[in-house]
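agent> fetching stored inputs for the pyridoxal-5'-phosphate docking request
agent> found them:
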Amino acid sequence: MRIVDLRSDTLTRPTPAMRRAMAEAEVGDDVFGEDPTVNRLEEMAAKRLGKEAALYVASGTMGNLVSLLAHCNRGDEIILGDKSHTFYSEQGGSAAIAGIHSRTLPNQLDGKLALKDIEAAIRPDDIHHPRSHLIVLENTHNRKNGSPLDVAYMRSVRELADQYKLKIHVDGARLFNAAVALGVEARNLVADADSVSFCLSKGLAAPVGSVICGSGDFIVKARRARKLVGGGMRQAGVLAAAGIVALTEMTDRLSEDHANARKLAEGLAALPGLSIDPAMIKTNIVYFETNREDLLEAELVRRLDKQGLKIAAMGPRLLRAVTYYQISDDDIEFALQTFSKILK
Ligand SMILES: Cc1ncc(COP(=O)(O)O)c(C=O)c1O
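agent> prediction call returned; pasting tokens
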């Protein structure tokens, strides 16, 4: 039976070039700083994003947690979106592990935090309050249609952050999707951020890993924090080798995933029983709602699954489909036909 799995771009499998690079990778003990392949990936990532230094970590979740640990002291407050991955989907690690207080603001439809909301949330210097320390932005924004945050918005958040002496961290799990969608270099999207964590293992198709980039001092602290959370890996070059291929060969082709996502969104919009605005879909993530009482999200997922199409239920009536390297134009046709069969 044909299976088309659109639940997430984390389902990407490594390319043949990645598997070769992994098999041939030169390795050493990375906790001693002696894995040449990890070192090469980190140098390459820092250069690509215009930052002084970089650190390879096991996952996007670890990238964000280690960044928070490196930026904040216990009791500091971070300002972040109520739909951000860091707040919503990382087990509250910021509180559980880093002792950080979260101040959530509503994510706008395009994934942004309104500047007036940020400003209103910044604490005065008062003995009763936690200290506002860091703004966390997500680019692209997973739960907000994979929306990309543009350079002008980043600039305006930087101006505000400077006014109140705050830092900015970007959860750039899909930063390269944002760059491709906006037609800018990824480095321009993070020029106004103090740190960024981006994933190699989503649309870029590497099997494992994320990279954090920032100043030299920040990465020294992040390296300590990574060891604290058990993220010091040894001959990690076998993994980093795939990351190097991801960075060199897999970023520009993300436009194909975006075209597939747009095609899927337009096709879904033409079907009865679903709500979606295809104009909101700018990258590889397609959110939509079911209006059918007899086909609420769990039932719709179950019925599609029986026909070989996998999508994700994300909340009451809310569903998500994500395109990625192994999803072809023909798979999108199959997905639309399968939806059509079930909804009619
Ligand atoms: C925006 C965002 N940030 C962080 C992560 C965490 O990445 P990982 O699953 O590698 O921990 C994800 C995962 O989907 C994500 O979508």
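agent> quick read of the result: Residues 10, 59-61, 85, 138, 142, 171, 173, 199, 201 surround pyridoxal-5'-phosphate (CB under 6 Å).
agent> awaiting further instructions
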